[in-house]
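Appendix B. Raw example, untouched.
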Amino acid sequence: MSAHPRLRVNLLSDDQRQDLIAQGIDVALRFGVLEDSSAVARRIHSWPRVAAASPGFLSTVGRPECPADLANFHVLAGPSGSGSGVTLRKGSQISSVKVDSRLMVSTNEGCIAAAVAGMGIVITSSFSCAQELSKGALVRVLEEWDLGDIELNAVYAVGRQAKPSARALTEFIISEVARDPPDLLLSLEKPYATPSGA
């Protein structure tokens, strides 16, 4: 913020989608597929989606050896929607698996915490669980399979010109993510930011 001394930011942390106009939000940071095709958005970055579980969970129930095995495991349902099914790819192979989640968590952080506690397999972005993976609290499964990417987009309210302050915040995030994505975004993983000022 030193580059924009008049910029003030009111950061709203919420995993639920909000009405940008009704809430007076200038720019939202949204993970995942944009549901509104008319939304004015700027792509910031994307990360591979990974599946992971705690060592204790895997030692107790075993580990999935192929995508079809996921149907027999507890797959945690988080805000990314991995609780109903998942599609995995390896070369020309495509495998879509239906999963029946016993635990649904409304926040990504909560879903990761549940996985660390040994409650099931979490499917999330690689950066979201980077710390847990590096510390050994979580272990990746089905590493050779591609679970797709999770995008981060800056979304502006439809029908309203984006404020210069909102665009400045977006440009700052893009430049910082290019340098070191996890460190910047672990605190911004919940998706709403409302800058005000110039």
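End of appendix B.
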